[in-house]
Each structure stands twice: as structure tokens, then as C-alpha cells.
Design brief:
Elements (H helix, E strand, L loop, with lengths): L12 E14 L2 E13 L10 H11 L6 H25 L7 H24 L11 H9 L2 H16 L6 H17 L8 H25 L4 H4 L7 H19 L1
Antiparallel strand pairs: 1-2
């Protein structure tokens, strides 16, 4: 993101949900307003010095750059602990095949591929992060191995995904709900086509969760009004991301 007027933003900047005080001129009088929402500056948008959202995005980016060693070490500690807990759970409670080292290496590779895909979507598109089909990997694990392992992988994946957004609680909760509902809805491994239904159910559950959390966090919800935004609408993204996870898991099968 470039602070100079007229310079295009090279990457999409997304600020996690958070409170802020802003001032607005209302018929000649200054008014302070409390907001609690996410700010997204799409890639290629012209940065304006008098735009409040652009100022907030620049401040958010500047506090992370240059990357400090303590921040990098903190992220490493969190990710390392998540990986260790996930591997320990699979070795202690997973079925015989999932306890094999080569199986766990394969699962970690798929986990890394999922997160890489999510990062590319976040950096180079203005699509909401809820479009990423995070539940595809847990669904596939539920089919190939067992649902206990898939639930744990889904929980770990939710925390990894939220780390891209400073552990945004709304994103974390939605991804958790979608992953758990997808696995619980996929009850018959003899019929892999149920993955599509499981993905749709997870998307609907994610959309309901998002609507409820938005109302709790922001105090208002404009979902029906924003539905005309199409693919940029968060509700549509929640449902679409869940359905896309079902389609992708079925394709992986």
C-alpha cells in the first residue's frame, strides 16, 4: 500500500474487525462516532490522503513493517505449538494409518497448500476471506481416515487461517463452525456425494454465525442491503466457501 496520492495499492489490505473513533462533519458541526467493523482496501485502489479508511489501512500496515524479530518469533511459537498439538493428537488418538509418519507429512503438506491458496486469495483479490474453502481438507480426511482426526485438523486450520488476520475472532469462529458442521454432516462415507450436502450445510451454518457475530460485534447488520454486492458480500462468501469446500473435497476423492 502506497501512501503517496495517486499511487495504486500493490496488494489488498484487510484490517481485522476492531473498534475505532472517527469524526464526521454533520451540517457544520463535528460529531464523534464509534465504529466496529473491518476495513478492506482492494488491490489497485487509489490511495487518498483524506480518506479515513485509507489512513487506517496505512497505520495498520506501518505498525507491522519492518517485521520485528519478536513479532516473527511470537508467530512461530503459536504455529509451532499448533502443529505439535495436532501431530500429538493424531499419533495418540488417530487410526493406525494416520499414525504413520508419511501420512502426517502428507497431511501437513495439504494443510500448507490450503493456507498458501488462502494467502494468494487475500493478497491478490478483493474477495472476502470467507470464500476460501477451508472445510475441504477436513471433509477429505473424514472420508479417507476418520472424523475424529478431521475435526482436529479443522480446528488447527481455523487458527492458522485466523493468523492471517491477527486472529480475527469473527473469521476464526466462522471457519471453526464451517469445518465442524461439514464433518458432522458427512455421516456416510460410502456415499461421497454427501460431501456436497455437507459443504452446503457448513456454508449455511457459517452464514448464520457470521450474521449473529456481526450483530453482536458491530451492533448492526446490513446483510440484506449488501446482498447486491454479489461475490463481495460476506454472507454469499460464507455459503459459497462452504459449498466450494464440498465440491473440492468431492473432486479430491
Amino acid at each position: 500500500l502506497m501512501p503517496q496520492p495517486g499511487a495504486p495499492a500493490p496488494l489488498t489490505v484487510r484490517i481485522p474487525y476492531g473498534p475505532r473513533m472517527i469524526s464526521r462533519d454533520n451540517k457544520g458541526s463535528s460529531q464523534a462516532i464509534f465504529e466496529h467493523r473491518r476495513i478492506i482496501v482492494p488491490r489497485g485502489e487509489i490511495v487518498l490522503p483524506d480518506n479515513a479508511d485509507h489512513k487506517a489501512a496505512l497505520a495498520f500496515e506501518e505498525q507491522k513493517r519492518p517485521q520485528r524479530a519478536i513479532r516473527f518469533a511470537s508467530q512461530f511459537v503459536v504455529h509451532f505449538l499448533l502443529c505439535q498439538m495436532l501431530i500429538a493428537y493424531l499419533r495418540l488418538f488417530g487410526q493406525s494409518r494416520i499414525r504413520l509418519l508419511r501420512t502426517q507429512i502428507g497431511l501437513m503438506a495439504l494443510l500448507a497448500l490450503t493456507l498458501t491458496t488462502e494467502k494468494i486469495v487475500l493478497l491478490f483479490t478483493k474477495l472476502p476471506e470467507f470464500w476460501v474453502p477451508n472445510a475441504a481438507l477436513p471433509l477429505w480426511i473424514a472420508l479417507v481416515f476418520d472424523r475424529r482426526a478431521s475435526l482436529m485438523v479443522g480446528i488447527g486450520l481455523a487458527f492458522f487461517s485466523a493468523s492471517f488476520h491477527a486472529y480475527d475472532p469473527v473469521l476464526l469462529t466462522v471457519v471453526l463452525v464451517r469445518g465442524i458442521v461439514a464433518v458432522l454432516s458427512f455421516s456416510d462415507r460410502k456415499h461421497p456425494e454427501q460431501m456436497l450436502r455437507a459443504g452446503l450445510m457448513s456454508g449455511i451454518a457459517g452464514a448464520l454465525t457470521f450474521a449473529a457475530l456481526t450483530m453482536i460485534v458491530e451492533g448492526q447488520f446490513h446483510g440484506p442491503r449488501d446482498i447486491l454486492m454479489g461475490m463481495s458480500n460476506n454472507l454469499i462468501a460464507c455459503v459459497g466457501g462452504g459449498l466450494a469446500a464440498g465440491v473440492l473435497a468431492r473432486w479430491l476423492h
